[in-house]
Structure to design on (128 residues):
């Protein structure tokens, strides 16, 4: 017996490139990228992030797809244009933009808090 399965979108296209990107916290413990596809310019919201490399400007999502981030963060218009249904748990426009927090202190810093990101901008404490 032969079983035919359809590959997931992440399997058929394991890497995507985003421009004008921002990082938002949609719900406690859940961060997503919003931006526009480098090819076609369509707005996009990723599945929740599982890792983010600040040096390489790359993120891996829960779906297994890698997003390569082109250029610096956008001005936030990509987040505003994202279809409401794609940002689960968010209450736009009050979804918390954590772009600067993540690019400065890493993914863990943004995942740690439940409040507005402004309260979390203090430098991380390093144990001696």
């Amino acid at each position: 017996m032969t079983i035919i399965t359809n590959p997931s979108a992440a399997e058929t296209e394991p890497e995507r490139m985003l421009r004008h990107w921002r990082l938002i916290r949609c719900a406690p413990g859940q961060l997503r990228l919003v931006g526009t596809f480098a090819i076609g310019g369509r707005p996009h919201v990723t599945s929740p992030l599982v890792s983010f490399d600040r040096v390489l400007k790359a993120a891996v999502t829960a779906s297994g797809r890698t997003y390569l981030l082109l250029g610096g963060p956008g001005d936030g218009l990509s987040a505003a244009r994202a279809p409401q249904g794609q940002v689960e748990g968010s209450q736009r426009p009050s979804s918390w933009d954590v772009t600067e927090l993540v690019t400065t202190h890493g993914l863990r810093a943004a995942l740690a808090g439940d409040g507005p990101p402004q309260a979390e901008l203090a430098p991380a404490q390093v144990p001696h």
Observations:
- The radius of gyration is 16 Å.
- Residues 21-84+94-112 form one domain.
